[in-house]
Structure formats: C-alpha cells, structure tokens
C-alpha cells in the first residue's frame, strides 16, 4: 500500500483515477481495434468453451476468453483451466 | 506532392478541441523562423479558425474555394504573415464547400503549393468522416494530437488506425495539455501510459499553459515573440525535431518541483 492509499482510506478521499483510465482504455481499444463487439466475443467464448469441453473437463466457471491488445496488435486470449481429460478419450 | 521535397504534414486528432489548430499555428511560425518556407492550410472548412489563431482574419480576400474555382491565382489566395513572411496561410472557403469538396480538390491545392514550400501543415477538422478524409488526401505524413484523457486517447487510436490503413508514414504523436501535478498525483494518464497504448513515436509534449489562451486572444502564436513560456519553448522544439535535430523532450520533474507535486511523489511511497 502507498501512503496515498492509506490516507485515502482514512479520510475517504478519491482513489487514483489514472489506473482506471488505463484499464478502461485497454479494454475499449481491444474492441475498437478488432471491430468486435462484446456480444460477438461472448458468443465466441461460449462456442470455444463448448468445443474444448468435448475433450477436457474445465474448472467450473473459469473459462475466460478475452480480447487483449498490445503494440497495436489485438489477440484473442483464452484462459481455460483444465480439471481433467475426459475419460472416454 | 510527389517529386518535390515539400513535406505535407496532416495535423489531426479525431476529437475536437485538443489543440490541432494551436499546434498548426505555432509550428508554422516556428518552422518559418528556422528559415523554412511554410504554408498552413486550413482544412477545417466547417469551423475555420486558423486565421484567428494567426491574427490574419482581417487580411483574407480570397480563399481555397476561389483558388479551386479559378477566380484567383495562388499568390492572391495565400496570406503572408507580416512578421514572419516565410509563413503563409491558405484560408478555408465557406462551410458550403463541404458539400462539393472532393479529395481530388485537396490534391490539386497540394500540387500548386508543393513547388513553393518546404512544409505544408494541414489543419484537419475533428471527426473521421469526409472532412477528415479530404484533409488526409494530400498528406504525406501526420502528427496526431492527443490530450492525456480517456476520450482523446481513444479517438486518437481510431485516427491512427485509419492513417495506418492509408500507409501514411511517419505518424508521430504530440501530447498536449499535460498537467504535471495531476500526473504526479496519478489523476491523469502519464506520457508513458499514452505512448504504451498508442505505440507512436513522441515528437512533442506540451503542458497546460495559460499563455496559450492569452496568445490566442491576441492572435499572436506564442512562438512569434521569443516568449519563454513552457508551451512556447516546446512548440519551437517540435519544429527543430521535425527538422531532424535531436532535441530532448521536456523533463516533467523539472517543471514539477512545486510543493504539491513533491508531496504527490511522497504520497506514492510504498509503505506496505
Ligand atoms: N497547451 C495548452 N494549454 C492551454 N490551453 C490550450 C493548450 N492547447 C490548446 N489550448 C486551448 O484549447 C482550446 C482548443 O484548441 P484548438 O487548437 O482550437 O483545438 P482543435 O483545433 O483541436 O479543435 C483553445 O481554447 C486553446 O487555446
Ligand atoms: Mg481546430
């Protein structure tokens, strides 16, 4: 914790907003740059999860598929923790 | 445009009110002072005000519109700056031009200007629609102006995408209206934040400076009279960087020695 945060907690002051701006920009630019709207990403997420689930069992409620952007390149990044491989395989 | 050495630089931003016209006027004067023959072209036909920033509003007889319709010659349309005769303004015609102006018209103006100038700075309108596309038609390179604010950075990103798609190179960034104290308090995006997000080379960083507004009131760009205000100094430095000189960017910390900002840094000291 920084001194600022301590004082902010003690006095109920506004938290540093620059970090919020950075984070919100990252998210909105990933969508702007790829021209994919959140609804489309959500649809892809559901379909990717369905495909992957045919082969492996995923941790409940953990499948994440997000747009990320760095150096003007946008990537679809999936984070799908595996519980176990389906026994039928 | 093609076979001459004249550099056509588009000054654009997406969002309005971030400092395009101010940069165009100050950079125009600063380049002229470096002995470069410079024209500033007001491509904001809807909301023209480059003439006002330069204090030339009463000297306009003909405009780009008269030039295109053949009712005047190039020398008649160009308004020479009295104090800085190497600088000329090509005024925008009336807003009705927007209805018929095509990218070919901009290229036509550019072709006329190219043999006479070292630099043509094109002051683009806000937005990414027809007006912007027209302004960009004659551009060989671009300077994107942004403020360290979320909406300005987002719009700048949009414009960068469009310019990249057109293959306009180089693209450089001027960050304007930076407030060092707010940055120190982490209440404003820092230069590093914006560069990290937009991934463009930085050609200038201008702080918030009330002298900018006062000089606009007078119609005398800050760079005109060797004023020592931070913005005046930085606008002149941007001109030298465009000329290929390696001029260091302003050091925020040195402008940031006030009690408040030192307190700001202390506050960010980690204790846990
Ligand atoms: N560095 C600065 N510090 C303070 N005010 C500024 C600065 N740059 C621009 N401004 C002010 O911001 C307003 C918008 O600037 P302008 O150049 O007209 O923007 P744009 O052409 O992008 O719409 C003007 O009132 C101008 O004086
Ligand atoms: Mg303007």
UniProtKB/TrEMBL annotation, chain A:
Q: Which domain of life is it from?
A: Bacteria
Q: Does the record's keyword annotation contain Cell division?
A: yes
Gene3D superfamilies on file: Cell division topological specificity factor MinE
Listed A to Z, the keywords are: Cell cycle, Cell division
Q: Entry's InterPro entries?
A: MinE, MinE_sf
Name the GO terms of the biological process aspect.
cell division; regulation of division septum assembly
List, alphabetically, the HAMAP family matched: MinE (MF_00262)
Instruction: Name the family.
Output: Belongs to the MinE family.
Q: Which NCBIfam families match?
A: minE, PRK00296.1
Task of the protein? Prevents the cell division inhibition by proteins MinC and MinD at internal division sites while permitting inhibition at polar sites. This ensures cell division at the proper site by restricting the formation of a division septum at the midpoint of the long axis of the cell.
The name on file for this protein is Cell division topological specificity factor
Species this protein is from: Aphanocapsa feldmannii 277cV
TrEMBL record, chain B:
Its Gene Ontology biological processes? division septum assembly; negative regulation of cell division
Boundaries of every CobQ/CobB/MinD/ParA nucleotide binding domain copy = 9-222
Lineage, top-rank taxon, reads Bacteria
Q: Recite the UniProt keywords alphabetically.
A: ATP-binding, Cell cycle, Cell division, Nucleotide-binding, Septation
Gene Ontology CC: cytoplasmic side of plasma membrane; cytosol
Binding annotation for ATP: 15-22
GO terms (molecular function) for this protein are: ATP binding; ATP hydrolysis activity
Q: What Gene3D superfamilies does the record point to? A: P-loop containing nucleotide triphosphate hydrolases (3.40.50.300)
The protein's matches in PANTHER family, at most eight in alphabetical order, are given as: SEPTUM SITE-DETERMINING PROTEIN MIND HOMOLOG, CHLOROPLASTIC, SEPTUM SITE-DETERMINING PROTEIN MIND HOMOLOG, CHLOROPLASTIC-RELATED
Q: What does this protein do?
A: ATPase required for the correct placement of the division site. Cell division inhibitors MinC and MinD act in concert to form an inhibitor capable of blocking formation of the polar Z ring septums. Rapidly oscillates between the poles of the cell to destabilize FtsZ filaments that have formed before they mature into polar Z rings.
Family (UniProt): Belongs to the ParA family. MinD subfamily.
Full protein name: Septum site-determining protein MinD
Name of the gene this protein is made from: minD
């Amino acid at each position: 914790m920084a001194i600022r945060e301590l004082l902010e907690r003690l006095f109920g002051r506004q938290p540093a907003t620059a970090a919020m701006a950075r984070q919100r920009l990252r998210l909105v630019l990933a969508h702007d740059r790829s021209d994919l709207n959140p609804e489309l990403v959500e649809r892809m997420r559901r379909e990717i999860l369905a495909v992957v689930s045919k082969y492996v069992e995923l941790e409940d409620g953990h499948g994440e598929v997000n747009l990320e952007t760095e150096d003007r390149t946008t990537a679809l990044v999936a984070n799908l923790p595996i519980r176990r491989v389906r026994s039928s395989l | 445009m093609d076979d001459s050495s004249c550099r056509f630089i588009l000054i654009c931003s997406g969002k309005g009110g971030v400092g395009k016209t101010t940069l165009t006027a100050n950079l125009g004067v600063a380049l002229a002072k470096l002995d470069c023959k410079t024209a500033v072209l007001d491509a904001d036909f809807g909301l023209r005000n480059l003439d006002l920033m330069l204090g030339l509003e009463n000297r306009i007889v003909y405009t780009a519109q008269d030039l295109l319709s053949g009712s005047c010659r190039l020398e008649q349309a160009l308004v020479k700056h009295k104090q800085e005769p190497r600088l000329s303004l090509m005024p925008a015609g009336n807003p009705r031009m927007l209805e018929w102006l095509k990218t070919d018209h901009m290229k036509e103006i550019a072709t006329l200007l190219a043999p006479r100038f070292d630099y043509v700075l094109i002051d683009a309108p806000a937005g990414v629609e027809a007006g912007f596309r027209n302004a960009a038609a004659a551009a060989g390179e671009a300077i994107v102006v942004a403020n360290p604010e979320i909406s300005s950075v987002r719009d700048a990103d949009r414009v960068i995408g469009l310019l990249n798609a057109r293959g306009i190179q180089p693209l450089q960034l001027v960050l304007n209206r930076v407030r060092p104290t707010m940055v120190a308090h982490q209440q404003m995006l820092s230069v590093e934040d914006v560069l990290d997000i937009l991934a463009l080379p930085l050609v200038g960083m201008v702080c918030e400076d009330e002298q900018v507004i006062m000089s606009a009131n007078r119609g005398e760009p800050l760079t005109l009279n060797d004023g020592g205000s931070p913005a005046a100094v930085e606008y002149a430095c941007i001109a030298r960087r465009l000329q290929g000189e390696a001029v260091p960017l302003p050091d925020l910390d040195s402008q940031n020695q006030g009690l408040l900002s030192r307190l700001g840094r202390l506050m960010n000291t980690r204790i846990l």
